[in-house]
Predict the structure.
Amino acid sequence: MSTPKKNYEKFGSRNFVPSTAGANGDGEGDIIFIGTGHEGEDVGAGQIYYMATDGNGGVEWLITDADAESTSKNLLAVAMASGQPSDVGMLLRGMVTLRNAPGVGAGIPLFLSTTAGACNRVAPSATGDVVRVIGYNINDTANAQIWFNPDSTYIVIA
C-alpha cells in the first residue's frame, strides 16, 4: 500500500513542488516585486536579469551577458512574466521555465550564457567571459525547466 503524497501549501511565494515545464517564466520559489526594467522598459518572461542602481537611488533590472563582468556579477533573477518587475515579479531562487532551453541532461550545472538573458550547459571560455553557475537542469528533455539558484561566486577568464 502506497502512502499518498503530501499536499503542499504555499507560504508566501515559497513552493518548490516540481512540475512540468510551462510557459516562459512559470515558476515557484523566492520572488521579489521591486524595481523597473532598464530605462522603464519591460523585462521579458523567462529571461535572466541582474539588479543594478538606476542612477536615482532606485532599483532596475538589466539583461545578463557572460561576455562582461559588469553584466554577470550582481544579484540575478528570472522575470516571471513580461512587464515591470515590480508588477510581474523576479524569481531569485526556485523552479522556473526559461525562455531559452539549456538542452538535455538531468542534474547538470548550468552557466550564465554569452547570449543575453540565457544560460548554457557549457561554461563560456573566451577571454573576458564570466563563468558563473546559475542552477541545474531538472530533467533529461530539451525543455527549459531549471532549478535556479545562482552561485554568488564567479571567475573571469584571463
